[in-house]
Amino acid sequence: MNTKLIARYLADNCSEVEKEIVEQWVEGDPENQKLMEELEKIWKVSSKQDQHFDEMFNPKEDWEHFKNRIKRESEKNKSVFPLNYSNTGINRARFSQFRRVAAIIVIAALLGILAYQDLYTEPKVADPVLREISIEKGHRGNVTLSDGTQVQLNGDSKIILPKVFEADKREITLKGEAFFDVTHNPDRPFLIHAGEAIIRVVGTKLDVRSYPEDGGVRVVVKKGRVELKSRKDFVKDMAVLTAGEMGELYSKNNQIKEKTVDDLDLFISWTKGYLKFKNTPMSEVARQLERKYNIKVEFRDSSLEKMRLTAELKSRIIQRNMDVISTSLDMGYKIDQQEITFFKKK
Fold this sequence. Notes:
Layout: H1 3-10, H2 16-27, H3 30-46, H4 51-57, H5 59-74, H6 92-110, E1 130-135, E2 141-144, E3 150-153, E4 157-162, E5 170-181, E6 190-194, E7 197-201, E8 205-210, E9 216-223, E10 225-230, E11 238-242, E12 245-250, E13 256-260, H7 265-268, E14 275-281, H8 282-293, E15 296-299, E16 308-313, H9 318-329, E17 331-336, E18 339-344
Parallel strand pairs: 5-6, 15-18
Antiparallel strand pairs: 1-4, 2-3, 3-5, 4-5, 5-8, 6-7, 7-10, 8-9, 9-12, 10-11, 12-13, 14-16, 17-18
Helix pairs in contact: 1-6, 3-6
């Protein structure tokens, strides 16, 4: 774990992504938890203006030593420690923060916990450079990530990921729906953040869906093994899913439900360019039609939303697919530019 990131975490001066990274590291190993407890003690003690601490660090000399290097680095990049000082004295508040970071680095290093090179890295810490890949309604898109993982995005979906994955893990955020063919690498797990869920993958094929209107996250595994759990620390439940299984995490109560899937096409047919439904409420059918065709679907009678459709909509012509729905459920429809209205037949 990077020393600077730990210091920023203890100072409550890190991003939500960095906070989650540290907390996952702490939870991942009892030894890491013990270490963090010790570092928290060091952080609190180092805030006190006692003589013993000042003797350890000799504030004026140490500050002058580090100040020059920080100034050189800040000419290239914005420093995490803004240089605001005078010839007659050091800005005490900022120096207090500096020496607390120094305490973490020095004491942890003396304990042999952190890498030697961390002591001599520049004080500048930048947030990860993220990029966003999004697909609008009415489209699907494919992207190959730097590790070889292939991602197919459904309409109205996006992924957020760093330009370069970390050395020990691959981490992205999904909003919407995507099918992943993850490159196998047991030393670098693939983590998908979706809604309130974290999905951990080593190498597998799976579909993850997390639209706001869904009220949760759905994971369907085509191949391999997947771990599904809540992002919230107080929720300890976790589902281990294998090929042909589905897990759903509900945002309202943080419960996870698992079940076997008999027909994967009901969940991943969109990746092949068509939609397949089995006893699906028309309200859900409407949402999928809106994403696929970038249209607005309306119902003249609310009772039509509750009707259930079993059908395959494979035609590339939207009108033919509407004919299938109309025939299956004995309802009429009207297409007006980018809007479809369903109504009861007279």
